[in-house]
Design brief:
Number of domains: 2
Number of helices: 5
Oligomer: single chain
Largest sheet: none
Radius of gyration: 20 Å
Strand content: under 5%
Order of helices and strands: HHHHH
């Protein structure tokens, strides 16, 4: 019989989070768009807006941030675009951030 591994004490607080299940709602495009717009108008993520609607608690964000998933191929494309080695991920992300800010300044 296999011996159970002891879980480090600092990990035991994560047990509740590990058991969380992501729920996906398939709404029509107009309803989905309206929900996202109303969330943005209140400086909330769509998931936090949904939690407010159904009266669930939400954590206050430590710092507002935006995210994007980048594949190895994306880093190759961006490396060429910014004339950087794709392995210089931090520099690539910094160039992306500058481009985003520049784009917003044009608006």
């Amino acid at each position: 019989m296999a011996k159970k591994k002891k879980i480090p004490g600092k990990w035991t607080g994560s047990d509740k989070n590990i058991r969380a299940v992501q729920v996906i709602f398939e709404l029509g495009l107009p309803q989905s768009r309206a929900l996202r717009i109303k969330a943005i108008e209140q400086d909330l993520s769509p998931s936090d807006f949904i939690r407010d609607i159904v009266h669930l608690p939400r954590k206050k964000p430590i710092r507002p941030r935006l995210s994007i998933s980048l594949s190895a191929e994306d880093y190759q494309i961006l490396g060429k675009r910014y004339q950087l080695d794709p392995d210089q991920k931090e520099r690539v992300r910094e160039k992306m951030k500058l481009e985003l800010l520049k784009h917003l300044d044009k608006q």
